[in-house]
Design brief:
Length: 94
């Protein structure tokens, strides 16, 4: 049950308010309901992580192309800018 509570706390599937309500009630759920909830969270988190990874790959590919095509005089400035963008993307998608 602790593992499920941990998953509920860390998933992005639910709002904070929903998490509080679910955590308050989860001890009253039947074994089948607990298994179903855990399966739903696991599936969502897996698909979400896959989507985030694919998005990052796409964005970072574009950023790499921008730097690669930059003129010699702009390359360092573009590297710094794309580094800042990467940092922002990482922060947003955590």
């Amino acid at each position: 049950m602790q593992e499920l509570k941990h998953k509920i706390q860390h998933t992005t599937l639910f709002s904070d308010e929903d998490k509080i309500a679910i955590l308050a009630a989860v001890d009253t759920y039947s074994a089948d309901d607990v298994k179903a909830l855990e399966a739903i969270i696991d599936e969502f988190d897996t698909k979400h992580q896959e989507a985030v990874s694919e998005y990052k790959k796409s964005v970072y590919g574009v950023l790499d192309t921008i730097v690669a095509k930059a003129s010699f005089s702009d390359k360092k400035r573009f590297q710094n800018a794309t580094s800042d963008i990467r940092t922002g993307v990482e922060a947003l998608l955590q």
